Amino acid sequence: MSTVFDCSSPDKREAGLAAAANAVRAGGLVVLPTDTVYGIGADAFDAEAVRSLLAAKGRGPDMPVPVLVGSWSTVDGLVMSVPDQARALIEAFWPGGLSLVLPQAPSLNWNLGETRGTVNLRMPLHPVALDLLREVGPMAVSSANSTGQPPAGNVTEAEEQLGDRVQVYLDGGPSGDPVASTIVDLTQGTPRILRDGAVSRAELSDVLGVELEADR
């Protein structure tokens, strides 16, 4: 059975974060607010929990799960290296609506789907999400919706789609316009935009000093 916690109340927020952290550590699924859309999350290093996440969405491993982090420094332990372009984008847009695809550290024992040796990383600009991530570490997080349905912009929409497949729902209020994060691929040397989203192409170009191309 699922439990919903209203994080606008300090006491319920504290209880909700504790329940969510316990659920994640036990291999369960939680729904959390982010600065873009609501996400469904699990321990990034628990392969069975990630499989449960994909099953809850009705999605296969061919669409790998992104990873959310609670600090800039966490990234250093998850990737082979952090190139200067990635550092510049992190400093400019994290926490915020920018996801970066980088070669993952080969020593990591996780299974996020068919990633081809890469990982999609983001630090969300939402206090509830950041508190949870700082408590439990990196989480595999995808949009809180059934595949093919609109992303959830509030906890009610997430619960209607995912139901009891999720143990804990953290209600952080409406996400605003449900705009997904921009995804930039930095695995090939030349930055490429895989998905347009919350951070504009012009903003990215201003930071990097080059025009970014969309993936073809």
From TrEMBL:
<dbReference type="GO" id="GO:0003725">
    <property type="term" value="F:double-stranded RNA binding"/>
</dbReference>
<dbReference type="Pfam" id="PF01300">
    <property type="entry name" value="Sua5_yciO_yrdC"/>
</dbReference>
<dbReference type="GO" id="GO:0005737">
    <property type="term" value="C:cytoplasm"/>
</dbReference>
<keyword id="KW-0819">tRNA processing</keyword>
<protein>
    <recommendedName>
        <fullName>L-threonylcarbamoyladenylate synthase</fullName>
        <ecNumber>2.7.7.87</ecNumber>
    </recommendedName>
</protein>
<dbReference type="InterPro" id="IPR006070">
    <property type="entry name" value="Sua5-like_dom"/>
</dbReference>
<dbReference type="GO" id="GO:0006450">
    <property type="term" value="P:regulation of translational fidelity"/>
</dbReference>
<comment type="similarity">
    <text>Belongs to the SUA5 family.</text>
</comment>
<dbReference type="GO" id="GO:0061710">
    <property type="term" value="F:L-threonylcarbamoyladenylate synthase"/>
</dbReference>
<feature type="domain" description="YrdC-like">
    <location>
        <begin position="14"/>
        <end position="199"/>
    </location>
</feature>
<dbReference type="GO" id="GO:0005524">
    <property type="term" value="F:ATP binding"/>
</dbReference>
<keyword id="KW-0067">ATP-binding</keyword>
<keyword id="KW-0547">Nucleotide-binding</keyword>
<dbReference type="GO" id="GO:0000049">
    <property type="term" value="F:tRNA binding"/>
</dbReference>
<keyword id="KW-0963">Cytoplasm</keyword>
<dbReference type="InterPro" id="IPR017945">
    <property type="entry name" value="DHBP_synth_RibB-like_a/b_dom"/>
</dbReference>
<keyword id="KW-0808">Transferase</keyword>
<keyword id="KW-0548">Nucleotidyltransferase</keyword>
<dbReference type="GO" id="GO:0008033">
    <property type="term" value="P:tRNA processing"/>
</dbReference>
<dbReference type="InterPro" id="IPR050156">
    <property type="entry name" value="TC-AMP_synthase_SUA5"/>
</dbReference>
